Every structure is written in structure tokens, then in C-alpha cells.
Amino acid sequence: MVAIIPVAGAGTRLRPHTYTQPKSLIPIAGKPIIGYIVDQLQEAGIADFVFVIGYLGDKIREYIDTAYPDVRKSYVVQQMREGLGHAIWLTNQVISPDEDVIIVLGDTIMDIDLKKVVEAPYSVLGVKKVDDPRLFGVAEFGDDFVITHLSEKPRIPMSNMALVGLYKVCGFGKLHAALDYNIRNNIRTYNEFFLTDGLQRMIEQGEKFIAEKIDNWYDCGQKEVMLQTNMILLKKNAGKYADHPGLKNTILVEPVYIGENSKVSNSIIGPNVTIGDNAVVEHTIIRDSIIGNYTRLQDVLMYNSLIGSDSVIHGSSHSLSIGDNTELDLR
Prior knowledge:
Layout: E1 2-7, E2 27-28, E3 31-32, H1 33-43, E4 48-53, H2 57-67, E5 72-77, H3 84-90, E6 101-104, E7 108-111, H4 114-119, E8 123-129, E9 137-141, E10 147-152, E11 161-169, H5 172-184, H6 195-204, E12 209-213, E13 216-219, H7 223-235, E14 247-248, E15 251-252, E16 256-258, E17 263-265, E18 268-269, E19 273-275, E20 280-282, E21 285-287, E22 289-291, E23 296-298, E24 301-303, E25 306-307, E26 312-314, E27 317-318, E28 321-322, E29 327-329
Parallel strand pairs: 1-4, 1-6, 4-5, 8-12, 14-17, 15-18, 16-19, 17-20, 18-21, 19-22, 20-23, 21-24, 22-25, 23-26, 24-27, 25-28, 26-29
Antiparallel strand pairs: 2-3, 6-11, 7-13, 8-11, 9-10
Helix pairs in contact: 3-5, 3-6, 5-6
């Protein structure tokens, strides 16, 4: 089985952060989002990966090659962003038709037994009940969990069960043929080639898909969700960083993550704070925030903030969303 991880999007909902780095590389609880995805897939037994890259794709490649040098991997470039279906269609360059595939979106973290999905003898789509299904691909199914119909961002949803970025398909050749039909015939939804439409064509041709309900799912395309996900993942490692060598006259209110070579002095950090590598924090109070690598904070009271790498902030009290390479003097 091959894992396909599409990471070609521009991440417009997370600007200004995604002007300088892909959203899948934004760190949560000390690790980029894509790192959690790759680790989870490896733990489920996946050894082969295909990354669909585009916008800032060189940074994705650099991270994966450095963090996972021994992983068998290929990169496929999506030059024109024409939808997720188009991105998956391009991977036929490196995936054989008889291969089974599991597709996980590159900005999605979820709590699920992926090994169960990987080992299932049938195709599986991850679903979750949502408040407003008009924002998602929507699945309709009965008590047997066999999916009868899929639609992308329907104006009048017939179900509140949303597709949440996990797709296991038996036989890549059948999926590619369905996507190829839509692309050759210019069958679009909202001017894009959606994966949902390709899967629906497979259903119409008799392919069986089973819905797998997911309890906890985090779409890390928004600041608020990213901060919430950071809090949840930090709790799994609470107390781990209390003896960090870079701490001086500092109180940690767990859970907290402090990266390598970072120095924190005369400050109160936490709860729910991630500080990246090589950061310097002085005379500062931070809670419920993510601070990037090589960032310097001085005399700041900060809350509910997402701060990019290589940023410098002095003074005042704020909830901020600051991209990389930013300098603010708020005194």
C-alpha cells in the first residue's frame, strides 16, 4: 500500500504564516503537522509515500528528506492548483494501477486506528458529524455504513456526515480512471476537480466504500483549530520539559513544549504553549500560543497567538497572528 499526502495548497486561511512556509510545516507541540501524519502512517505499517507538492514545495521536500531520510518516497509536483482530484490524478506517474492507496490530507490530524483502516479488505472513507456540512464533502450511508452517495459542498446537504481527509482505496487504477474521466470531460465542481467527484463516479460504477466514523479530527487550516490541537497534543507530554536546560527564573504552567537550544528567563510560560527551537524569551508571560523557531520575545504578555519563525516582538499585551521574519516594537 502507498500513502499519498497532498500538500500543494497555498493555505490562504492561515496567512500571513503561509506566505513563507507551507501550513503543513507549522509546528504543533514541537512537530510540524506533516510529521504527525507520516509518523501515524508508519506506525500503521505504511512504508511507501508519495507527496504531492506545489506552493513552497521545496520546503516540504527539505523537511521530509531531512526528518525521514530512510523513508521510501516520491514527489509529484502540481503546477496548477486545480483541485484535490487533479492532485491525486497526477500520482499515476509513480503509482501502479494494482496498488492500494491511503490518502491523508497534509493539514489533518486525527485520532483513529489507522492500522485497522490499512488492513481492511475494502475501501474506507473517514467521516465525522459536523454542524455545517455545506463546507465539506458529504457522505450518505445507512445502518450498514455502506456509502450510497457523495457530494462536494452541497448547497442542500442530505447528510451531516463530512469527509475529513482520510481515504483508503483498493485499486489505484480504478480511482485514477474515474478521475481521468472527469478531467478529460472537464467535469468540475466550483471550478475544481474534486476527489469527491471521482469517488462518486466509482460508487456509480459499483465500487463499495465503507464509512469509518472518526471521533477526534483537527483540520489545522485555521489559527483557532491549530491552537486547540496544540493544547490537546501537549497534554500527552505534560511535565516532560520541566528540567529544560534553557530555563532561568521561569515558571512553567503545564502543558508546555520548549524546543532545542531555546532560552527562557524571568518568565511565566503556559499553559498550552509551544516554543520552537533556538528561541529567546525574556520577561514575558505567554499562554495558549505557538511560538516559532529563532523567535525573540521581550517584555510581552501574549495569549491565543500564533507567531512565525525569526520574529522579534517587544512590549505590550496582544493576541497575535504573525508570520515569519517579522519585527514588532509595541512599547
